[in-house]
Design goal:
Shape: globular
Distance between the termini: 20 Å
Order of helices and strands: HHHHHHHHHHHHH
Helix content: over 70%
Strand content: under 5%
Number of strands: 0
């Protein structure tokens, strides 16, 4: 019989999602204030926290060339975020936990929509092919990265809470990890593919990776991501097939916690990736342009990467089934 998540696991997941929704509301309020301050001259961030100031910014009409103003676009984003929060905050209650699958299932595309709204250009007529590809891949990079790190944080909290300390905890943990692995593998593929594009667009020369402040912070971020991928591969290929052993399960939990901490480190580095490595290096050369050959090469890299990740997932599943069969026979 296929194991299912315990009620306690659902409660923990519901609380995390509910509190995460409240944190999202606070974060979004502060971000709207920051946008308001940037849109108004001589307006400080503290002054922009005033709801009246925000309201004036959110209702400002668009100019002649734009189909919607930046403020109105932000207002749409805020409305979608409020809808997502309305779906997730009830998960803090027993009523919401009982409906966690439906509420979280509906909230997921709503949250994705909120992210996409923010990246929508107010004046699409000025959007070139390169800018369009850049926006799509940058948004995919953000969504995939947050899905990966967010999932790891949830797994780390569940592991720490000991909600899986039951007789069949190995089976339950293996099931949870296998389900998350699908999300993680897709996220890793999107992060790596989009990351290659963004690096290619941002940097004029490979030496700018170590000769500029932007590049050095990016190298540190890449190191953390590489460690996350390595830890995930160790979990997937070595520990997961051996979860029937108590020591392997304990190590799996520990490695998940380390992955989550590395993910937090990646997010902490992002605010330092400001400016342009080209300008920091004094590079006045022309920017890279996405030709048909470059796009074809990118698709080929994405296909090869996707195939390798799929092969990894299948190999891990085979190893897990083989280990389970061996344990049953023993």
């Amino acid at each position: 019989m296929r194991p299912v998540a315990t009620p306690l696991t659902r409660i923990v997941a519901g609380r995390l999602l509910g509190w995460g929704a409240l944190a999202l509301l606070v974060s979004d309020y502060l971000q709207v204030a920051a946008r308001t301050a940037r849109a108004e001259k001589h307006l400080t961030f503290v002054q922009a926290l005033n709801p009246d100031r925000m309201g004036a910014y959110l209702t400002r009409s668009a100019g002649r060339e734009a189909w919607i103003s930046a403020g109105e676009l932000t207002a749409v984003h805020v409305a979608v975020v409020l809808l997502a929060a309305a779906l997730l905050v009830p998960l803090l209650t027993s009523w919401g936990v009982a409906r966690i699958d439906r509420l979280a299932g509906v909230a997921l595309p709503v949250v994705l929509l909120a992210s996409l709204v923010r990246s929508t250009p107010a004046d699409a007529s000025q959007l070139s092919r390169d800018e369009l590809v850049n926006r799509i891949l940058a948004q995919g990079h953000i969504i995939a990265g947050t899905s990966w790190v967010g999932g790891l944080l949830l797994l780390a909290v569940i592991a720490r809470s000991r909600v899986l300390d039951v007789d069949d905890r190995a089976q339950r943990w293996a099931l949870i990890w296998q389900r998350f692995s699908t999300v993680a593998l897709v996220s890793v593929g999107v992060v790596l593919t989009s990351g290659l594009w963004l690096v290619w667009k941002e940097f004029g020369h490979v030496s700018q990776l170590w000769s500029t402040t932007y590049g050095r912070f990016l190298l540190f971020k890449l190191l953390l991501v590489a460690l996350m991928v390595g830890a995930g591969a160790f979990n997937q290929m070595w520990l997961l097939p051996r979860t029937s052993r108590g020591s392997a399960l304990s190590h799996l939990r520990m490695v998940v916690a380390v992955e989550a901490l590395l993910g937090i480190g990646v997010i902490a580095v992002v605010p330092f990736l400001t400016g342009s490595p080209r300008s920091q290096a004094g590079d006045n050369g022309t920017e890279h342009t996405a030709t048909l050959g470059i796009l074809s090469l990118g698709l080929l890299i994405a296909a090869v990467l996707g195939l390798s990740l799929f092969t990894t997932a299948r190999a891990s599943a085979v190893l897990t089934r083989r280990q389970v069969s061996t344990s049953v026979v023993a």
